[in-house]
Design a protein that fits this description.
This protein has 302 residues and is of the alpha/beta class. The chain contains nine helices and 13 strands. The longest helix is centred in the middle third of the chain and has 16 residues, at 102-117.
């Protein structure tokens, strides 16, 4: 029997968390699969922990103090799961609703890729907006030679597609990857961790692939970035960009030096340059779509 550790972290969005766990509970598989669900509740005050324990007593709930944020919470969850030595780790956002066959499809497709490629593999499940059907999160490919951090999302097809990195809204990682790459990097507080991990998988000799089709639903609800708010001064915009859930300068430097190539200073500072130019020339330099950007704070926490 294979085993999968399903890892989540949450903060004050009880109904979304419960909905996500319900979709995990309703997974249909045609093979025996042991599921260990680990949820890090990072200081929720809305009764999330007690509601989870009442409705899903099989879930291991680990409580944080409210300062873990996404990357820190997922690190705690993965650290706990590593002691269980599962065959797979499923990184899952608590605002994602999985389709009933999502996990079984990912594992089946992973086995097929593993047989052909013979290297450790992380397989990403794509999510779509429940209303529009548009892709929201998934795998990403670099698309500018001079800026390896500038990526475009990979739209899934009827077969797996190789990519460079991923959102951890739904990502299946085999144990051989974790044995080589380890946990999410503690250099990051909130964002960066999943994109960094994907790049590290490829750098270690493994591969990242986007699974065929969609595996669940997740709304991309980031809204308008405050650093593009025309009512704010330049300093207020830069301060907003430096916040922990945005693009903190020191954490972005770690990310850029590691993955940004020989011209890493350019991708390190590019969001700050873009905001400055947008302040000087309003509207001219902001992203035209949610995916036309090189920022990586893809994780949300209400």
């Amino acid at each position: 029997m294979e085993s999968v550790a399903i890892l989540l972290t949450c903060h004050n969005r009880r109904e979304k968390t419960l909905s996500c766990l319900e979709s995990v509970d309703n997974q249909e598989t045609r093979f025996q699969l042991k599921k260990n669900i680990v949820l890090v509740d990072d200081g929720s005050t809305d009764g999330t922990s007690s509601a989870v324990q009442d409705q899903f007593p099989e879930v291991t709930v680990i409580r944080g103090d409210g300062n873990l944020y996404w990357n820190g919470g997922m690190r705690v969850a993965m650290n706990h799961a590593m002691e269980l030595e599962p065959d797979f780790y499923l990184l899952l956002n608590d605002d994602t609703t999985l389709y009933s066959d999502a996990i079984s499809r990912l594992i089946k497709e992973h086995h097929g890729l593993r047989e052909r490629r013979e290297v450790p593999i992380a397989l990403v499940g794509s999510t779509q907006d429940p209303q529009s059907g548009e892709i929201t999160y998934g795998g990403w490919k670099t698309n500018k030679w001079w800026n390896p951090l500038h990526t475009e999302i990979v739209r899934p097809s009827d077969r797996p597609i190789k990519c460079d990195t991923f959102n951890a809204n739904c990502a299946l990682i085999e144990k051989e990857v974790v044995a080589t790459v380890g946990n999410l990097d503690p250099s990051y507080t909130h964002g960066f961790g999943d994109f960094d991990y994907g790049f590290r998988v490829n750098a270690s000799g493994g591969e990242v692939w986007v699974g065929s089709g969609f595996h669940g639903e997740c709304i991309r609800d980031h809204g308008e970035h405050p650093w593009f708010d025309t009512n704010r001064s330049w300093k207020e915009r830069i301060d907003a960009l430096r916040e922990v859930k945005a693009e903190p300068l020191d954490e972005r430097m770690v990310y850029a030096r590691r993955h940004g190539g020989p011209l890493w200073v350019v991708p390190w500072l590019s969001p700050y340059l873009r905001v400055t130019l947008d302040y000087l020339f309003p509207g001219a330099f902001r992203p035209s779509t949610p995916f036309d950007d090189d920022t990586v704070s893809s994780q949300e926490r209400s």
